[in-house]
Amino acid sequence: AADYTVPAPLNVTFSQGDLSRTVAVQTTQDAAVEGDEQLTLSITGASPFGGLTGATAATGTIIDDDKPIYSIAADQVTIGEAGGTVTFTVSRDRVDPVGNADVTVQLGGTGVLNTDYAVAGGTLNVGLQAVTLTFPASSAAAQTFTVTASEDTILELVEAVSGSITAIVGGAGGQIGTATASVDIVDNETATYSVAPNAGTV
């Protein structure tokens, strides 16, 4: 479909005393993810006096407003500390033919990375506590990473692990739908209580 509407050829008439004229270009709304597009208008001739000086072309940008919407979800609400695993899935509502898109998922919660849990899948940046997932251009496939709880012998409270979409870079860009998903790691240690008599005389 056409991205804009303009008469062709486009003739602009200058009346005596006119120093400038305005040309209106009507953009066309669509639902396609296509990225921003450039539109250039060029002066190809002038009559009856002829002669072109100065700038003979100007370029404008049509801003695409059809961005994919990215959302994150977790397939478990709670997992056990003894090796429990949860999969975080990031999906988008439409393909992006413009190029690859990198989505950053920030890790958070009371759980400590590489102490209370480990991450597999995507590209993990331990220093930034973040996972980057890459969506290939024109692919409808969701991207995932997994969180596996780490066993220990410490009696502790329930620990939460969250993943939040914080950035979308590349392709046509994007919007954030469901921004955060989380899971609770449930401890499997229990406290042992005992009672003993005090020594004494009667």
Please tell me about this protein's structure.
- There is one protein chain.
- With 202 residues, the chain is mainly β.
- 0% of the residues lie in helices and 41% in strands.
- The chain is built from no helices and 15 strands.
- The protein has strands at residues 4-5, 26-27, 37-42, 57-62, 69-74, 78-80, 85-92, 101-108, 117-120, 123-125, 130-135, 143-149, 159-170, 175-176, 180-186.
- The chain has a six-stranded mixed beta sheet, with no helix packed on it. Strands 9-12-7-5-14 form a five-stranded mixed beta sheet, with no helix packed on it. A two-stranded antiparallel sheet has the order 1-2.
- A hairpin with a 4-residue loop joins β10 (123-125) and β11 (130-135).
- The mean pLDDT is 88.
Compact summary:
With 202 residues, the chain is mainly beta.
Secondary-structure element sequence? Answer: EEEEEEEEEEEEEEE
Helical stretch tally: 0
Class from secondary-structure proportions: mainly beta
Q: How far is the N terminus from the C terminus?
A: 102 Å
Task: Give the total of beta strands.
Answer: 15
* Helix share bin: under 10%
Task: Characterize the biggest β-sheet.
Answer: 6 strands, mixed
Question: Whole-number average pLDDT?
Answer: 88
Strand content: 35-45%
Strand order of the largest sheet: 6-15-13-8-11-10
| Radius of gyration from CA coordinates | 30 Å
Low-confidence stretches: none
Shape: rod-shaped
